[in-house]
Amino acid sequence: MSGPGLDAWAGDLDGLPAEQILARAAGRFPHRLGLATGFGREGCVLVDLVARHGLDVDVFTLDTGVLFPETHALWEELEARYGVEIRSVRAPAGDLAEVDRGWETDPDRCCELRKVIPLGLELTRFDAWVTAIRRDQTAERRRARAVEWDGKFGLVKVNPLVGWTAQDVDAYVVRHGVPVNRLHDRGYPSIGCEPCTSPVSPGEDPRAGRWRGLEKKECGLHTRPGWTSSPSPASPKE
Ligand code: SF4
User: Fold this and answer.
1) Which of 40, 101, 144, 235 could form a disulfide with 231 if both were Cys (CB 3.0 to 4.6 A apart)?
2) In Å, what is the CA distance from 95 to each residue of 61, 64, 107, 131, 196?
3) What's the rounded Cα separation, in Å, for the pair 103 and 192?
4) Does residue 219 have an active-site annotation?
């Protein structure tokens, strides 16, 4: 599904509440809609929405093997709270061995083998996947639609939170008591792998703690023409 049909469907969905966008997508792609959560605040909200509305969405996470203990704790907490399985998707052992301590030697290759390739393989199981994209995150995302074609991975991208602001996310978390990563309260607005994430100081860009000291700013999951993962100052993602 791409082209004019997708544009027309996006026109129908743009402006609908997030749960309705999710529900319509789940109905359109039965057993073929995936949600990759990185356990950011938006990802936790999406898990809440999927569980709260009993939607047919396959939830998984990329376990790079070097996540924070606090992230593992949140993973378990979400599963217990919502009674859902958040499947672990990992790179083959041989690939992990190739980039053992790869964050020190070749972070781009490390991200490619631990994240980008496993995600690409996993997404071949689906016709569509759910992302946490919001229009207020970057200039490029201002034109984002509720559903779009994901040219990088070759499937439909569903963006239920596209019309939300960072404040909407925070309000939803508070209103529904959604579990979020405890590291957020300890100076980590944006959380990735433990070796590549450090706390940020007040006033710093929220992603300043990611790959601190390196030019690298993206893991490559969302990097393609028209899609960047740099959030607005108040909106850490993943
Ligand atoms: S964020 Fe760091 S540890 Fe994680 S995959 Fe990328 S380079 Fe490796």
Assistant:
1) 235
2) 18, 11, 14, 26, 19
3) 12
4) yes
Q: Is residue 98, in this structure, part of any structural domain at all?
A: yes
Q: What is the CATH number of the domain that holds 183?
A: 3.40.50.620
Predicted confidence at residue 1, as pLDDT, reads 65
- The residue written with tokens 């490390």 in the block is 110
Rounded to the nearest whole angstrom, what is the distance from the C-alpha of residue 103 to the centroid of ligand 1? 5
In ligand 1, the atom with minimum distance to the C-alpha of 210 is 1
Taking CA atoms, 109 is separated from 100, 123, 153, 173, in Å, by: 11, 20, 18, 34
Say if ligand 1 is within 6 A of residue 123 CB. Answer: no
Output the pTM of the full model: 0.90
With respect to residue 47, please indicate whether it lies within any of the assigned structural domains. Answer: yes
Write the pLDDT tens digit of every residue in 176-218. 999 999 999 999 999 999 999 999 999 998 888 888 888 877 7
Does some domain include residue 204? no
pLDDT score at 223: 60
- Nearest-atom number in ligand 1 for the CA of 115 is 5
216 domain residue, yes or no: no
What is the model's pLDDT at position 205?
A: 85
Question: Tokens 């996470």 appear where?
Answer: 61
Count of domains forming the chain: 1
* Cβ–ligand 1 contact at 196 (below 6 Å): yes
Choose the residue to mutate in 219, 223, 238 for probing ligand 1, maximizing ligand atoms within 8 Å of C-beta: 219
Domain containing residue 68: 4-196
